[in-house]
Amino acid sequence: MTASPVVTRIAPSPTGYMHIGTARTALFNWLFARGRGGKFLLRIEDTDRERSTPEATEAILKGMTWLGLDWDGDVVSQFERADRHAEVANEMLAKGMAYKCFSTQDEIQAFRDAASAEKRSTLFLSPWRDADPADYPDAPYVVRLKAPRDGATVIHDQVQGDVTIRNDQLDDMVLLRSDGTPTYMLAVVVDDYDMGITHVIRGDDHLTNAARQIQIYTNMGWDLPVYAHIPLIFGPDGKKLSKRHGATGVDEYQAMGYPAAGMRNYLARLGWAHGDDEFFTDAQAMEWFGLDGIGKSPSRFDFKKLANICGQHIAAADDAALLQELEGYLAASGQEPFTDAQRDGMSRAMYCLKDRAKTLGELVEKAHFILAERPLELDEKAEAALDTVSRGILSELTPQLQNASWERETLEGIVAQVAEANGTKLGKLAGPLRAALAGRAVSPSVFDMMLVLGRDETLARLNDVTA
């Protein structure tokens, strides 16, 4: 008998930005499915009509697309499946696994107040649980699950181990509200069952929910999925990651210039490990990822480690793909797009821009010599490097470059000769030359810049500072 194919899902609520914790959960589900030839599905849990917005749904789709977490099939809207959820609740009602509860909010509150005063459990025990339908009033009601009162529910969790919750700690949860709309707790189970979800990998803040949801599966005679509840992400101070720690929305990380491959690598390592491996490709992550590698403790978000991993991915990236990602970064951060000439220059320069740039913003900063137009505006350090003596030496260099063959070895030889003739070293002349070509004191190698800029632009920039 062959095992059924793996099907995972991510099911965010469209009530705000896409949190980095949701992104990591999506990544874990994506890696688990993709590494096993399975399916990864996307469901938008938009049953909260007051807080759900189209803008938030769009932010989720954009965040997933930017991270490169492709999903299979169409996006499922939970709200649009409300009739199916109600159908399941009514089936349980017909089988005596659920019941109509006519208790009002005031009555429920009075029950809890009395229980609190008597120092007993405030878990609501509905008087309608075993009522005769003949006694039902003509009044609004909710449909509640008839949960077991004795024994315990055990969650066999792949991360947390076996978690036992006493049934007397769980109330008869509402399945259908008085207006007939399904609750989130019911909708999740029905959707997961109908979508064929084999593995539910989600945050451990849903652990108690699993105990309640298992009761619906059991009542309906449905096979349980495999559960894996992963710890939350904490900030550097050991508290739940929030705005006070910095960026928490996925869109912010794109605008801050972190490459998607670096984010995937870093988020995979946040709470999961494969030996001592820190830097790895998507293919390796898919091959290695397993639920047994997920730790039980919350992980801490470390911006320094993120930048380090991202720098390695920028250095290893394909030039054309990196250029495309740079253009996405410019759009996300509200910067002007590249002109055709700038794009061409960036393509030619990528080989000397990628090293030691930890973010796409740093890479763009290194590319200033391509993106700037003549006459260059010199920064303070560049201005200082171009004193009278050094400008004089550059004016001697310019005619010697006029007819030189435009190759690194030749250019290095000419610059070294001019430096020696003026009683200085090539390294000393590199500062003024860099200032003339980039307008800055920090840039790629002067010879890389000369090769990328070409003869005409190099000579024009030298003439600008020596004329």
TrEMBL record:
<dbReference type="InterPro" id="IPR008925">
    <property type="entry name" value="aa_tRNA-synth_I_cd-bd_sf"/>
</dbReference>
<dbReference type="InterPro" id="IPR020058">
    <property type="entry name" value="Glu/Gln-tRNA-synth_Ib_cat-dom"/>
</dbReference>
<keyword id="KW-0067">ATP-binding</keyword>
<keyword id="KW-0436">Ligase</keyword>
<feature type="domain" description="Aminoacyl-tRNA synthetase class I anticodon-binding">
    <location>
        <begin position="330"/>
        <end position="464"/>
    </location>
</feature>
<keyword id="KW-0030">Aminoacyl-tRNA synthetase</keyword>
<keyword id="KW-0963">Cytoplasm</keyword>
<dbReference type="InterPro" id="IPR045462">
    <property type="entry name" value="aa-tRNA-synth_I_cd-bd"/>
</dbReference>
<dbReference type="Pfam" id="PF19269">
    <property type="entry name" value="Anticodon_2"/>
</dbReference>
<feature type="short sequence motif" description="'HIGH' region">
    <location>
        <begin position="12"/>
        <end position="22"/>
    </location>
</feature>
<keyword id="KW-0648">Protein biosynthesis</keyword>
<dbReference type="InterPro" id="IPR049940">
    <property type="entry name" value="GluQ/Sye"/>
</dbReference>
<feature type="binding site">
    <location>
        <position position="243"/>
    </location>
    <ligand>
        <name>ATP</name>
    </ligand>
</feature>
<protein>
    <recommendedName>
        <fullName>Glutamate--tRNA ligase</fullName>
        <ecNumber>6.1.1.17</ecNumber>
    </recommendedName>
</protein>
<comment type="function">
    <text>Catalyzes the attachment of glutamate to tRNA(Glu) in a two-step reaction: glutamate is first activated by ATP to form Glu-AMP and then transferred to the acceptor end of tRNA(Glu).</text>
</comment>
<feature type="domain" description="Glutamyl/glutaminyl-tRNA synthetase class Ib catalytic">
    <location>
        <begin position="6"/>
        <end position="307"/>
    </location>
</feature>
<comment type="similarity">
    <text>Belongs to the class-I aminoacyl-tRNA synthetase family. Glutamate--tRNA ligase type 1 subfamily.</text>
</comment>
<dbReference type="InterPro" id="IPR004527">
    <property type="entry name" value="Glu-tRNA-ligase_bac/mito"/>
</dbReference>
<dbReference type="GO" id="GO:0004818">
    <property type="term" value="F:glutamate-tRNA ligase activity"/>
</dbReference>
<keyword id="KW-0547">Nucleotide-binding</keyword>
<dbReference type="InterPro" id="IPR020751">
    <property type="entry name" value="aa-tRNA-synth_I_codon-bd_sub2"/>
</dbReference>
<dbReference type="InterPro" id="IPR033910">
    <property type="entry name" value="GluRS_core"/>
</dbReference>
<dbReference type="Pfam" id="PF00749">
    <property type="entry name" value="tRNA-synt_1c"/>
</dbReference>
<dbReference type="InterPro" id="IPR001412">
    <property type="entry name" value="aa-tRNA-synth_I_CS"/>
</dbReference>
<dbReference type="InterPro" id="IPR014729">
    <property type="entry name" value="Rossmann-like_a/b/a_fold"/>
</dbReference>
<comment type="subunit">
    <text>Monomer.</text>
</comment>
<dbReference type="InterPro" id="IPR000924">
    <property type="entry name" value="Glu/Gln-tRNA-synth"/>
</dbReference>
<feature type="short sequence motif" description="'KMSKS' region">
    <location>
        <begin position="240"/>
        <end position="244"/>
    </location>
</feature>
